Please model this.
Amino acid sequence: MSKQIGICRAHTNIALIKYWGKRDEVLFLPMNSSLSLTLAAFYTDTKVTFDPSQTIDSFFLNNKKQAPQETIKITAFIDLFRQNYSLKGAVKVESHNHVPTAAGLASSASAFAALAGAVNQAAHLNIEPTLLSTYARRGSGSATRSIFGGFVEWQKGTSSADSCAVPIDDADWDIGMIILAINTQKKELSSRAGMKLTVATSPFYPAWITSAEKDLAEMKQAIQQQDFQKLGEITEANGMKMHATMLGANPPFSYWEPDSIRAIKKVKSLRKNGFMCYITMDAGPNVKILCKHSEMKFLKKELEKEFASEQIILSDVGPAIRSLSEKEWLDL
Ligand code: ADP
Ligand code: DP6
Model:
């Protein structure tokens, strides 16, 4: 049998209503539904080769062969497809992150969406996007949403079968996001560990759940009405509430750094001066600013008064996953 190849590009997404906590850690079922914006600026390209002549899986990230503890995660993920579709043979996975890895900039989201898309293509499975999002979910929860572009909801569902992504709106209005890279080193505490500790120990967690469901319903309304101010206000409030749950954990923790707070203050002062810009942060010190696309360049100039220009990345709204040809892959 010959080799089978699939190549896929998936973009990262930034949650505006956060996913923070699992009700089932094996199936990656979340405690609450979440909603994100897919980003054009950051993505992962992944090539999967099913090779009958190989007996063990291998994984290369950014041209570097990965250690067994990283390859194990890939094997566990591909095993889901092997079991459900009786696929045979080991795989070689080659991936390139056009996003810093494990720094709170959602590399795991684009990574597992790209991997799911590449397996789908390599093995000619023809899995439709909604079902594919349930596979992506099993690699990393946030990857569920990276299957689609624009605004995407991850519905928490009632079981593994219906905990999936649903595209809400293509976000083809005056929207952009600025990523302020405060620190792109690998974080000390993964999102997975951070959310687990929060669920287990934070007395604020039940309040987070109630409040996140309410925020989600209101945000969906704001999106429907293209009400940017409401969208921004809910985004900022929801992100802050997620971070508050961590301060209540035992032991308490925070992903923030002094420069994160400096960035938050700067954005608030820009808002006072009439700009529509709102903060969200994930499991890392980096600050994401939801803003109007038409104001992005001006906001960048303002941010450059306090931060280096290399720290400031402007992003358009990103698309859904797509297959890449061998030529596109070689040209990368
Ligand atoms: P982030 O904030 O970047 O999503 P996480 O700690 O949630 O950070 O996830 C990072 C992990 O995702 C990495 O340690 C690695 O296991 C996995 N990962 C990142 N990029 C890739 C990739 N391109 N292919 C496969 N797995 C990846
Ligand atoms: C703060 O999806 O990285 O970015 O499911 O354990 O892989 P695992 O966690 P992950 O967590 C993302 C947390 C977040 C919020 C979000 O993206 O919704």
User: Anything to note?
Assistant: The radius of gyration is 19 Å. The domain at 175-315 is CATH 3.30.70.890 (Alpha-Beta Plaits).
